[in-house]
Amino acid sequence: MAVASGGEAKKMDQGDEREEMHLYPDGEEEPVHGGWGRPSAMRIGLRENPGFVPLIYYGLQHYISLAGSLIFIPLIIVPAMGGTDKDTATVISTMLLVSGITTILHSYFGTRLPLVQGSSFVYLAPALVIMNAQEYRNLTEHKFRHIMRELQGAIIIGSIFQSILGFTGLMSLLLRLINPIVVAPTVAAVGLAFFSYGFPQAGSCVEISIPQILLVLLFTLYLRGVSIFGHRLFRIYAVPLSIMITWTYAFFLTAGGAYDYKGCTSDIPSSNILIDACRRHAYTMKHCRTDVSNAWRTAAWVRIPYPLQWGIPIFHFRTSIIMVFVSLVASVDSVGTYHSASMQINLKPPTRGIVSRGIALEGFCSILAGLWGSGTGSTTLTENVHTINITKVASQRVVELGAVFLIFFSFIGKVGAILASIPLALAASVLCFTWALVVALGLSTLQYSRAASFRNMMIVGVSLFLGLSIPAYFQQYQPESSFILPSYFIPYAAASNGPARTGSKQLDFAINALMSLNMVVTLVVALVLENTVPGSRQERGVYIWSKPEDINTDPSSLEDYSLPRKVSRCLCRSNCLGV
Questions:
Q1: Burial 493-522 (b: 16+ CB within 10 A, else e)
Q2: How many CB atoms lie within 10 A of CB 285?
Q3: Res 71: pLDDT
Q4: How many alpha carbons fall within 13 Å on the CB side of residue 405?
Q5: How confident is the model at residue 552 (pLDDT cuts 50, 70, 90)?
Q6: Closest CA to 121 of 504, 470, 503, 517
């Protein structure tokens, strides 16, 4: 085992910090293409092929490092929708399949950047708002399927709107309004939206959640410079390593009888337990034990997720309006990720047409997610930027092969069953870190602007504050029967009880829901302030996109974004898609 010395690790860390930072000091002109042309820090470049065996290794590495973002959303939404453990396993398998398919589509027909597509946290808060609508609270029969079909319909409508934005070229016009000062608080608000869910859920079993949080922080911050056989395993595999260790620890706690209570069994739902003592312990058993899930016993070994597996989607005006606005937030998030990823890989920034093409394809991929019923839309994961940075691997082939593995694993029902059996407290503690990472990645986009500018600081500060405070005003209208909702779900019940009263129940629900979503309010405030408060282009850090004319002067400059030849011939007249 070759472990780097303390001095060498410190030098490596300092080098990494220099690579990660991309600042333009006050008074200096930003390079024409945002720093394109600097020496690449990537171990494997965009078009490089390291060989079949390294491809398998790096492909698995890429997706394992993103595990926290790919599989944990079903652990939150399916139980809240009244689904069984088998339903949770099925939704996880569906997410793996959809993520694999959409990643391959984006790699070939989207921006062609090595970006993993998946179920984004952008869609999690609106999903929680919809499933906590008043009419679903006391629904017992087929509750899960009914809510899932409602989510499918809303996601499909919102995704169609997103596709129209991209395919018509309207996204190219909208890009003029989207700058780092808009992207930073909006993405940060996506992570901050779940502060009322994170530790309140993880705190149900502190003997598991606190070690998990401490381990992931130890690996990502304190041991990040330790190199084993030339690989920084702790930094790359911080989340999966910490999960395996804590999950094993939780298994021994369960096997050792830490959660055994006299006369109580974890197989009986808490509502059916008559003994008061057992009712008090039911919550702890459900969140802490590693053997409460029956997904392994009920899931099939081979099951292929298929479209409309939950039934025909339900379309309602109120939920469709919500998802239309959410698709805008997802688009803003993706724009920031496209720009940051191109800078990391040392490519010229894409043209506005190429960005529009990526957004259009993301809309199409979210339509697929809605048809398959994954519970959320499919979009570019913000965490891609972090993964590329820590692995130094930016190969298209690596991402594509990893996507093939996802599709293969989605066909094995027992894989989803294993992941569905992760204790809820452990999942919540991992999400505490993941949501914090989303906040950090969002704020990191400020490096492309003058972060020390008073104008920018005020816009970001006001946007974030109002993005948290205005939804808090709407969320204070408690549901009349709040006792049937867990405390961490009450903030998402504002849609049915908020202060907006227009005379139309559908419109009231949509307005109250949108105003209770932190990311939507933050985006609106940031957009208005950024595009009305005077400031120079350098101060604002306006995204500099390549121009179509650059292809005439240097045909190879944007070759990495070009579509396959046969596809280009079919779309030769679509200038708005960067063809």
A1: bbbbbbebeeeeeeebbbbbbbbbbbbbbb
A2: 22
A3: 87
A4: 17
A5: low
A6: 517
- HSE at residue 156, side-chain half, CA atoms within 13 A, is 19
Binned at pLDDT 50, 70 and 90, residue 13 comes out as very low
Residues 6+ apart with CB under 8 A from 465: none
* Cα 293 from Cα 277, distance rounded (Å): 22
Look at residue 250 and tell me whether its pLDDT is greater than 70: yes
SS percent in the chain: helix, strand, coil, step 5: 65, 5, 30
Q: What global pTM score does this model have?
A: 0.88
Work out the burial of residue 301: count CB atoms within 10 Å of its CB; fewer than 13 is exposed, 13-18 middle, 19 or more buried. Answer: exposed
327 close to 159: Cβ distance less than 8 angstroms: yes
From CA 254, how far away is CA 266, in angstroms rounded? 11
Q: Which residues are CB-neighbours of 130 under 8 A, at least 6 positions away?
A: 147, 150, 151, 154, 319, 322, 495, 513
Backbone angles phi, psi at 22, to 5 degrees: -145, 70
Tell me if 291 sits within 8 A of 420, measured CB to CB. Answer: no
Alpha helix (H) ranges present in 175-271? 180-192, 198-202, 206-217, 233-236, 238-255
If you compute the radius of gyration of the chain from its CA atoms, what whole number of angstroms results? Answer: 23
What's the confidence (pLDDT) of residue 38? 57
